[in-house]
Amino acid sequence: MVTQSFTLTNTGKIEFAPGQKSITADKGESVQFVLTNNSGQHLKDWGLYFNNPFDVSNSLRYSFGDLQVNGNVYTAEKTISVDTAEAKVAKYNAYAIYVTVENSSGTVTIFQRDPEIIVNGGDVED
After folding, report:
1. CA dist 60 to 19, 27, 53, 84, Å?
2. Which of 68, 83, 100, 124 has the most CB atoms within 10 Å of its CB?
3. From edge to edge, which strands make up the β-sheet containing 30-37?
4. Model-level pTM?
5. Per DSSP, which regions of the chain are E strands?
6. The pLDDT of residue 68
7. With bands split at pLDDT 50, 70 and 90, how would you rate the model's confidence at 126?
8. How far is CA 106 from CA 23, 42, 109, in A?
């Protein structure tokens, strides 16, 4: 299992853990996502968003909700796919992380783009 960690800061920004903007995983390996909420705001939801501007119906959003694991730390886990006869796992997979919080202004969603998962042996042509 590999881990990719983020922090929601008290300035309302999502920061990557040092050296974790891009992580490498194997096909079939689990990736643990860890978010630490240091914002002082109530977290309502967080997750990942894989955008596809060429085919909006194939965009993917993974919502992890607001289940705390330990104090202000939230975790979620997804498993990298394996190749099938119809499709190969892509080598480079950029996404956005989002966090939805409740503050004095109401409900606010914060995005941070460009974390990336590089899949060992992943396909670069499909």
Report:
1. 25, 19, 11, 19
2. 100
3. 14-16, 2-8, 30-37, 73-79
4. 0.89
5. 2-8, 14-16, 22-26, 30-37, 42-50, 60-63, 73-79, 92-103, 106-120
6. 74
7. low
8. 34, 11, 10
DSSP 82: -
Q: Alpha-carbon distance 20 to 15, whole Å?
A: 10
Distance (Å, rounded) from C-alpha 117 to C-alpha 81? Answer: 12
Mean pLDDT score across all residues of the chain: 91
Q: Is 97 helix (H, G, I), strand (E, B) or coil?
A: strand
Asked whether 64 and 97 are in contact (CB, 8 A), the reply is: no
In 3D space, the residue among 32, 23, 31, 48 whose CA is nearest the CA of residue 99 turns out to be: 48
